[in-house]
Amino acid sequence: ITIHRLTTNVEKIMEELHASSSAMSQTSKTVASLGQAIAQGATEQAASLQETSAALVQIASTVEQSQEHA
Q1: Cα–Cα separations (whole angstroms), residue 9 to 4, 5, 21, 23, 48
Q2: Would the CA dihedral through 9, 11, 17, 23 be positive or negative?
Q3: Residue 69: what are its φ and ψ, rounded to 5°?
């Protein structure tokens, strides 16, 4: 193997490593973004569930009062 060929091979390996690390970086950013979106969705669902629960408590209270006055 000549020095030139060895240098060329090392350069190719370095280019492939750079491309792979760039792809992994982009994938990591995508995963982080999706994680944030899932967390936001879960937070919104939890808030909606709390609102629904409060509405159901109010309905139950109204029904109970109606029964007492009937």
Answers
A1: 9, 6, 18, 21, 58
A2: negative
A3: -95, -5
Residue type for position 64 = E
Number of neighbours of residue 20 by Cβ within 10 angstroms: 10
pLDDT tens digit string along 17-47?
A: 999 999 999 999 999 999 999 999 999 999 9
Find tokens 């967390």 and name the residue: 39
**Calpha distance 64→62 (Å, rounded):** 5
Matching residue, tokens 């109204």: 62
Enter the DSSP assignment of 1: -
| % of residues, the chain, pLDDT over 70 | 99
- Tell me the C-alpha to C-alpha distance, in Å, between residue 70 and each of 7, 21, 57, 61: 94, 73, 20, 14
